[in-house]
Amino acid sequence: MRLLTAIFLLVTIYAQAQDSSRAQLFDAGWRFHRGGAQGADEPDFDDSQWRAIDLPHDWSIEDLPGTQSPFSPDAISQVSGGFTTGGTGWYRKTFTIPAVQKGKRVHAQFDGIYMNAEIWFNGKKLGKHPYGYTSFWYDVTDRIKWNEKNVLAVKVRNEGENSRWYAGSGIYRHVWLQVMDPVHVAQWGTYITTPQVSAATAGVHISTKVLNESTGAASIKLVTRILNAKGKEVAAANNTQSLTPKDTVTYNQDLAVARPELWSVTTPVLYTAVTSVYRDGQLVDQLQTPFGIRSITADAVNGFRLNRQPLKLKGGCVHHDNGPLGAKAYDRAEERKVEILKASGYNAIRCAHNPPSPAFLDACDRLGMLVIDEAFDAWTQGKNPDDYHLYFNDWWRKDVESMVYRDRNHPSIIMWSTGNEIPNREKPEVVSVAKMLSDHIRTLDTTRFITCGVNGVTPDKDPFLATLDIAGYNYARDKYATDHQRLPDRVMFATESLPLEAFDYWMGVTDHPWVIGDFVWTSFDYIGEASIGWLGYWQRQHFYPWNLAYCGDIDICGWKRPQSYYRDVLWKPGQVSVFVKPPKPSFPTNPNKVDWSHWEWHDVVADWNWKGYEKQPLEVEVYSSCEQVELFLNNRSLGKQPTSRANKFTATFKVPYEAGTLEAIGYNGNKKINTAVLRTAAAPAQLKLTADHNSMQANNQDLVYITIELLDANGVRDPKAENLVQFSIAGPGTIIGVGNANPTSTESYQLPQRKAWQGRCLVIVKGTGEPGNVVLKAKAEGLEEGQASIVVK
């Protein structure tokens, strides 16, 4: 009854506040069943024994029934899916809409369901949606029972071998309920472009599609106001047209913004277009659309330019999962991912290999991150027996339109990608599909470039690449110079590159104006493609318990790995970091790894704890963008070495192990610029908890990430500590994920405990709908307890 009352109030509030967004979050109060449920599409089906959940949800990250782990060596997904399990799941939501809303149009919108979703409303099947990454919606108006219970039922089938990475399972993105006047702006019906941009003025073109779903003709006035970041109106326009019943009209309005604040990666200034629809003088619909004013160009002479300023793309590929949360696309999880990459020097992300969540793009807009929005990993020929190739011919147009219509107002997006490593790229029939996709995108949006991730770049791929505006080169830096000689107008970039070759790839970018950027595989680590960053290819079942790719600059908990510190050296001045090669490999190696499989990084760790190896020489690597570095062991200089392009900004020392302090100092001339220190830790004595925020919103969605470190009595983290840490929580919050980034750990991501790895672990806390104080406590046998406090408001 509480749930039904809440939904009633939610819809009633909407009726009283037409200036607010029409879309109301519909994530709370669902029921879920893992497995088959014959008859669950019927309204009177008894779901009282099903589990009560809130969205977003991913059942593949949950512990398998009867276990304390989501992983199994027998999982159909095998290495590709990180040994996780899909299957079939059912969702049902019961709610009431008051009769005062009768006469409105009501839509149910799904941001993303993985995969093969079938939707019923009050027993009527609305349709199906095979692709797991595009948004879709249904008009449910004609099936609503006003002032009575309504049931929305969703069946999800993530079955067979359908992905090359961890996809997750279920309604893993938001669901929205939209309540609108019969006269309203169409779904994704606002399209904003900035065809003229200068320091003095910006021309803003706004195309708005309005529907009249009423039974009578109407005189429709459309008023559009542009507000700056401070909420001040800077431009306005209005137009009036007549609409007959069931008619659609597109309003085209041109506005000028004087002295615009341009959106860029350093100043991501957003404007807001407020669209108001008046029917016979009465306000009936209103939308707010954030957008940015900016220009982009690219050519082989000047490279990529943002607002007429040259910019090299410091990029990384990103899969959609959020580590310990699985595929669940909480807004804060998506935002944090972008924040971390931005802090590590990235200015561009390739969404590999599918459209991301709207929340992810919103974060890129706010934080100043450029985006390549990618459509597919497969077209007509599959890479797995049950992947998207089964649906491509029937669904590609709908899914491309969903991506472009939904996302085309985001200033962060600079390219649309039609796909990734499509097989048989040299064949005319595949080139024909490539052209079909590019041509169709150009009918929807002409303000971005079109690309595709292409492997095996050879001259026979030229017709395929000719369908693109910018050529995406996967692992083909050796072709930058020769291809430029053949085709001097081609603009290219590394859509994928190897971490081990980061120096060579980035020098290719800096040396060649026609090479506009580098996107490493990958910037963030992910579940699935297990062990490609260690055991490599070819992959086998006996790779279990590996479940993470282990190739990301940033690990799944959001912590920098050694290659991220090296990339800092390539991208930022004054950087110094120090790492040690273990005397024995960190993990068992794969003697059968093929020679082209190189997604790993050097086996180095930030660790000066090598008891039993006293006086034995250890290899120490210092990464630095200073002119030279000096290494000290317990305040004794071990000498200076230059760090420059000549030695790939890496100084290598042989250091006989001796407990204490290892310190690297970077100099420019005789001036000390930066330092990096490793210290030997004593036995762990205490737990230190550090939250990324000390408050969160009481909206049942916001998250706080808390890092737990195992420190000795002097506050030094023990990078070899793997103690089991147990957690308890009090107040209006709940633990929704734990992790430690160990690529071979099969522990639960859900239980209130986790072993440390490299001396730390992570807890993710979600606030409930109530304000108050949350206290998370952590304990481990023999250690002083720690705690963190969070205010929920």
Short note summarizing the structure:
The chain is mainly beta. It has nine helices and 44 strands.
By secondary-structure content and strand pairing, the structural class works out as mainly beta
Global geometry: globular
Estimate what percentage of residues fall within beta strands.
35-45%
Query: Helix coverage percent of residues?
Result: 10-25%
The oligomeric state of the chains shown is single chain
- Rounded average pLDDT: 96
How many separate helices?
Answer: 9
Order of neighbouring strands in the sheet with most strands: 21-22-23-24-25-26-27-28
Per-chain topology:
Layout: H1 2-16, E1 23-25, E2 30-34, E3 51-53, E4 87-96, E5 105-110, E6 117-121, E7 124-129, E8 136-139, E9 149-158, E10 175-180, E11 183-197, E12 201-212, E13 218-227, E14 233-243, E15 247-258, E16 271-279, E17 282-291, E18 296-299, E19 303-306, E20 309-310, E21 313-318, H2 331-343, E22 348-351, H3 358-367, E23 370-374, H4 392-407, E24 413-420, H5 428-444, E25 449-454, H6 462-465, E26 471-474, H7 480-486, E27 492-497, H8 502-511, E28 515-520, H9 562-571, E29 576-580, E30 617-624, E31 628-633, E32 636-642, E33 650-656, E34 661-668, E35 671-679, E36 686-691, E37 695-696, E38 703-711, E39 724-730, E40 733-739, E41 753-755, E42 760-767, E43 772-779, E44 786-792
Helix pairs in contact: 2-3, 4-5
